[in-house]
Amino acid sequence: MRLNPISPVNNADFLITIEGLSSVYWTQFSGVKASFKRSTFNDGLSNATRTTEGGNKEYQTVTISKPHDPETDGPVFDFIKQKEGGTNFDLTLRPVKRVSNAQGTDTFRGNKAWRLTGCKISSWMCADGIDTADGTKTVMLQIEFSVETAEFS
Question: For strand 114-126 and strand 56-59, is the pairing parallel, antiparallel, or unpaired?
Protein backbone atom coordinates (compact mmCIF):
# COMPACT_ATOMS: atom_id res chain seq x y z
CA MET A 1 0.00 0.00 0.00
CA ARG A 2 1.41 3.36 -1.02
CA LEU A 3 0.93 6.30 1.32
CA ASN A 4 -0.32 9.54 -0.17
CA PRO A 5 2.24 12.33 -0.16
CA ILE A 6 1.35 15.08 2.28
CA SER A 7 2.55 18.64 2.54
CA PRO A 8 1.84 19.89 6.06
CA VAL A 9 1.85 23.62 6.64
CA ASN A 10 4.56 25.23 8.76
CA ASN A 11 3.35 27.20 11.79
CA ALA A 12 4.93 30.37 10.35
CA ASP A 13 3.25 30.08 6.95
CA PHE A 14 0.04 32.00 7.68
CA LEU A 15 -1.27 35.44 6.91
CA ILE A 16 -3.63 36.83 9.59
CA THR A 17 -5.91 39.63 8.43
CA ILE A 18 -8.72 41.45 10.19
CA GLU A 19 -11.55 43.14 8.31
CA GLY A 20 -10.91 46.88 8.51
CA LEU A 21 -7.32 46.45 9.71
CA SER A 22 -5.50 44.95 6.73
CA SER A 23 -2.19 46.83 7.00
CA VAL A 24 -1.20 45.22 10.34
CA TYR A 25 1.11 42.19 10.41
CA TRP A 26 0.05 39.85 13.23
CA THR A 27 2.71 37.34 14.26
CA GLN A 28 0.93 35.01 16.72
CA PHE A 29 -2.43 33.23 16.71
CA SER A 30 -3.61 31.01 19.58
CA GLY A 31 -5.59 28.59 17.40
CA VAL A 32 -9.20 27.60 16.79
CA LYS A 33 -10.75 25.27 19.35
CA ALA A 34 -14.39 24.19 19.59
CA SER A 35 -16.02 22.26 22.40
CA PHE A 36 -19.41 20.57 22.39
CA LYS A 37 -21.92 20.49 25.22
CA ARG A 38 -24.31 17.57 25.01
CA SER A 39 -26.83 16.14 27.41
CA THR A 40 -26.04 12.84 29.07
CA PHE A 41 -28.39 10.11 30.26
CA ASN A 42 -28.41 6.63 31.73
CA ASP A 43 -30.41 4.06 29.77
CA GLY A 44 -31.61 2.40 33.00
CA LEU A 45 -30.27 -1.01 31.98
CA SER A 46 -26.60 -0.50 32.62
CA ASN A 47 -24.25 1.69 34.60
CA ALA A 48 -23.09 3.39 31.43
CA THR A 49 -23.70 7.08 30.90
CA ARG A 50 -24.53 7.91 27.31
CA THR A 51 -24.39 11.15 25.38
CA THR A 52 -27.17 12.53 23.19
CA GLU A 53 -26.76 13.77 19.65
CA GLY A 54 -26.84 17.46 18.87
CA GLY A 55 -26.00 19.96 21.55
CA ASN A 56 -24.22 23.31 21.52
CA LYS A 57 -20.91 24.14 19.89
CA GLU A 58 -18.84 26.75 21.69
CA TYR A 59 -15.59 28.27 20.44
CA GLN A 60 -12.80 29.05 22.85
CA THR A 61 -11.58 32.64 22.83
CA VAL A 62 -8.83 33.38 20.32
CA THR A 63 -5.77 35.52 20.95
CA ILE A 64 -3.69 37.31 18.33
CA SER A 65 -0.58 39.33 19.01
CA LYS A 66 2.23 41.26 17.37
CA PRO A 67 5.35 43.09 18.44
CA HIS A 68 4.30 46.53 19.66
CA ASP A 69 5.55 49.49 17.64
CA PRO A 70 4.34 52.77 19.19
CA GLU A 71 4.96 54.65 15.92
CA THR A 72 2.83 52.39 13.70
CA ASP A 73 0.23 50.82 16.03
CA GLY A 74 -2.15 53.81 16.01
CA PRO A 75 -4.59 52.03 13.63
CA VAL A 76 -4.71 49.01 15.99
CA PHE A 77 -5.67 51.17 18.98
CA ASP A 78 -8.23 53.00 16.82
CA PHE A 79 -9.68 49.60 15.83
CA ILE A 80 -9.82 48.49 19.48
CA LYS A 81 -11.57 51.71 20.48
CA GLN A 82 -14.06 51.26 17.62
CA LYS A 83 -14.82 47.58 18.40
CA GLU A 84 -14.54 47.38 22.22
CA GLY A 85 -18.25 48.11 22.63
CA GLY A 86 -19.10 44.71 21.14
CA THR A 87 -19.19 45.46 17.41
CA ASN A 88 -18.50 42.34 15.33
CA PHE A 89 -15.51 41.90 13.04
CA ASP A 90 -14.17 39.06 10.92
CA LEU A 91 -10.70 37.51 10.79
CA THR A 92 -9.10 35.43 8.03
CA LEU A 93 -6.25 33.01 8.66
CA ARG A 94 -4.83 32.07 5.26
CA PRO A 95 -2.06 29.52 4.61
CA VAL A 96 0.66 31.07 2.47
CA LYS A 97 3.65 29.68 0.65
CA ARG A 98 6.90 31.55 1.27
CA VAL A 99 8.69 32.48 -1.95
CA SER A 100 12.08 34.05 -2.48
CA ASN A 101 11.40 36.19 -5.50
CA ALA A 102 12.65 39.70 -6.18
CA GLN A 103 9.40 41.24 -4.93
CA GLY A 104 9.56 39.33 -1.63
CA THR A 105 5.86 38.53 -1.82
CA ASP A 106 3.95 35.57 -0.38
CA THR A 107 1.59 33.49 -2.47
CA PHE A 108 -1.54 31.83 -1.14
CA ARG A 109 -1.36 28.10 -0.61
CA GLY A 110 -4.48 26.62 -2.15
CA ASN A 111 -7.69 28.59 -2.15
CA LYS A 112 -8.99 27.80 1.35
CA ALA A 113 -8.64 29.77 4.55
CA TRP A 114 -9.97 29.83 8.09
CA ARG A 115 -12.71 32.45 8.36
CA LEU A 116 -13.67 33.50 11.87
CA THR A 117 -16.88 35.54 11.90
CA GLY A 118 -18.85 37.32 14.57
CA CYS A 119 -15.68 38.12 16.50
CA LYS A 120 -16.00 40.44 19.53
CA ILE A 121 -13.15 41.84 21.60
CA SER A 122 -13.14 40.43 25.11
CA SER A 123 -9.81 41.92 26.23
CA TRP A 124 -6.63 43.52 24.98
CA MET A 125 -3.20 44.05 26.49
CA CYS A 126 -0.08 46.01 25.70
CA ALA A 127 3.20 46.77 27.46
CA ASP A 128 3.05 43.59 29.56
CA GLY A 129 6.20 42.51 31.35
CA ILE A 130 8.19 45.71 30.96
CA ASP A 131 11.53 45.47 32.71
CA THR A 132 13.69 48.56 32.17
CA ALA A 133 16.73 46.76 33.59
CA ASP A 134 16.53 43.84 31.14
CA GLY A 135 15.72 44.95 27.57
CA THR A 136 16.02 41.51 25.96
CA LYS A 137 12.32 40.83 25.35
CA THR A 138 9.97 42.32 22.78
CA VAL A 139 6.88 44.12 24.07
CA MET A 140 3.73 42.62 22.53
CA LEU A 141 0.30 43.99 21.66
CA GLN A 142 -2.41 41.37 22.17
CA ILE A 143 -6.14 41.16 21.43
CA GLU A 144 -8.38 38.40 22.79
CA PHE A 145 -11.81 37.88 21.25
CA SER A 146 -14.79 35.57 21.16
CA VAL A 147 -15.83 33.81 17.94
CA GLU A 148 -19.35 32.95 16.74
CA THR A 149 -18.38 30.75 13.79
CA ALA A 150 -15.17 29.31 12.36
CA GLU A 151 -15.04 27.67 8.97
CA PHE A 152 -12.23 26.38 6.77
CA SER A 153 -13.43 27.00 3.25
Answer: unpaired
